[in-house]
Write a structure and sequence with these properties.
8 strands; alpha/beta; 8-stranded mixed beta sheet
């Protein structure tokens, strides 16, 4: 099957490679030509504009976007709307907000262009093990791109989740759960480290042990094993943790729907706190303890 792949970052590049390995024809475009040429050396057809990319596809044309969420996606879709025609299919595979999908699908539908939202999970390991893919949109275009999904995903690793927005909504909740799981592992290892037993524990071995039949085994623990093996106390990195948006959206939707999601919310707020080691709210707490209980505080120049 022939597909146009737009956006060759960490995910898009490896997805293009996996499709090439699966026997598909990949027509590639990236804003920086060097990445396009890199994938071309591995078998893709290089293009240097969206007009050139769409011209090289056969109807019904399938275009898959792997771009940063937000304005960048909208800009590309606006241009593609003038280059594609009725029956063509656009797959938005980035981490877009599901409500944006509803707006985009309606706009493209006016021109007869099908829109699918694809939540894609797999990270840098997807090339080897496959990409778990969650699709939202109409049933017919989903079936049309199914050969691509079978190549990209591991066995039973893709699903039509429902109408427009469903794919990205399911992926959003997936990432909210991921936040909470990561926070729980972080807190657990922090408790081990603070205990009298911490200095004698090999955390890589603990992660490996917990993945052998325990109820908390997971791929995340598998990833912790080599992380601890190469840096036993993680002294070479800081505790600054970014968020890419999905956690915020998950918490926002929990509030909108009246669903209690305290663990996911706390894990998101902890990421915010991680970026400021001298957080103002913590200084307020210290000041209050001093005022009501006479508790000592550490002066700024004592740090």
């Amino acid at each position: 099957m022939k597909i146009g792949m737009i956006g060759l970052g960490r995910m898009g590049m490896n997805m293009g490679r996996r499709l090439l390995e699966g026997g598909h024809e990949v027509v590639a475009y990236n804003r920086t030509p060097a990445k396009t040429e890199k994938l071309a050396r591995e078998g893709a057809t290089p293009t240097y504009s969206l007009a050139e990319l769409t011209a090289r596809l056969d109807p019904p044309k399938v275009v898959w976007l792997m771009l940063p969420a937000g304005e960048t996606v909208d800009q590309h879709l606006e241009e593609l709307a003038e280059l594609l025609g009725p029956g063509d299919i656009v797959v938005e595979g980035g981490n877009s907000f599901f409500k944006d999908d509803l707006r985009r699908a309606a706009s493209l539908q006016e021109k007869g262009i099908h829109y699918l939202d694809a939540g894609v999970s797999g990270g840098i390991w997807g090339l080897k093990v496959g990409y778990c893919t969650m699709i939202g949109g109409e049933e017919k275009p989903f079936r049309q791109i199914e050969p691509l999904l079978k190549t990209l995903a591991p066995p039973e690793g893709y699903m039509h989740c429902g109408p427009h927005g469903a794919g990205h909504f399911v992926k959003m909740v997936h990432n909210g759960i991921e936040y909470a799981m990561m926070q729980a592992y972080g807190e657990g290892f922090a408790l081990l480290e603070a205990s009298p037993y911490g200095p004698g524990l090999d955390y890589a071995a603990v992660a490996k042990l917990w993945n052998r039949g325990s109820v908390i085994r997971s791929w995340l623990l598998e990833l912790l094993e080599p992380a601890f093996a190469s840096d036993p106390r993680l002294t070479t990195i800081t505790g600054h943790v970014d968020d890419s948006g999905e956690g915020r959206w998950t918490v926002q939707q929990a509030v909108e729907y009246g669903v209690a999601a305290p663990t996911i919310a706390i894990s998101l707020f902890q990421r915010f706190q991680s970026r400021n080691p001298d957080a103002f709210e913590n200084r307020v707490l210290a000041a209050l303890r001093r005022e009501f209980g006479g508790h000592p505080v550490k002066k700024a120049d004592q740090q």
